[in-house]
Request: fold
Amino acid sequence: MIQVTNDGHISKSGTAFASVKERIIDTGRTVEAMGFAALADQLAGGSEDRARALTAANDRASRDLSAVLDALGRVRECSDEVDTLDRAARELCGVELFDRVMVSRVSGSTWFPLALYAAAGDGRVSLDLDDSGAGVDNLRIALVSPLIEAEVVRRRLPAVVADADHEPRTHRPLVERTGTKDYVVAPVVACGSVIGLLHADLPFGQRPLTELDRDLLRMFADGVGLVYEVADLAWRQEQQRRAVAEACEAAVRTVDDLGFSGVARMSPSPDGMSPDRPSIPVLGAVRGNASQPRPGARLARLTARELEVVALLASGATNAQLADQLTVAESTVKSHVKHILHKLGATNRASAIACYLKETRDDEGRPR
Reply:
């Protein structure tokens, strides 16, 4: 039997320790028949057995924890979020804490088993296939009640399942295909959703799976979720970087198409202190170009201060550089830019710059 505990974990009722305790205390003989000395010896021997069992359990827990951390450390080397789940299953199987590890993807309310890995010894891992050479990757399982995995996904909690053959809440076709008897399962949570499941078992029955196995798998799955989030964030950041780079290249092409040669390019400063800072023309020179737009032009809608701002924008100046040149706060610069866009009917800075460059060029070419 399995039961859901108060913290939401699904586990086997009773503990191994309880059965050991019963054997130690229940000698099957009365105190009068044994004598106090014999009873004391019996209890002392039981205490020693219990101490040895606890020591062995602690040693195993420490060893298993180290194995899980080693596997998780290797998963952190994965930089591709698509490969994270598969890499996690292979690494966990490789430390031989479990004989087999199955990785699945969860999408919405559907569970997609991807691969079942088996430990082949010496850290080697192989795909576990049935007699027909097929795996588990052709299954599509609806996550509906009373399926145990549906509860695991819904509550985002792990479970340990005993006697899977007779547990009605398991997915029967998968249990029959894998031949599992007992297993532990934990959800992989990333970006606020359950993205996958990790199942693990010991099909050859070396020992029963316990709550310790369940909790170790949960810790590993939580770490995998964090690795996935980091990889996904890196991918999104790279996509944004490319989008910004393409937008900048498009703006440069637009300016070049207008044939304006007076746009400031990136050049080292005279003192060599800021090689990446764009050179900004002297403010007086900017005013000389922009203070007298031809009548009827869109630039005539701008105030003298706004003409200074748009001229500096066309020179490649940033908001901070504009604020420094005009001796105002950056918030004031942003307000000027907003008014300029509105008056010129421009949707963005590039459009405003294009308007400025076109009209000042036309104005320079008009006969005086």
In short: Residues 211-257 form the longest helix (47 residues). The longest strand covers residues 110-121. The beta strands are 2-4, 10-12, 100-107, 110-121, 124-127, 141-142, 159-161, 183-190, 193-201.
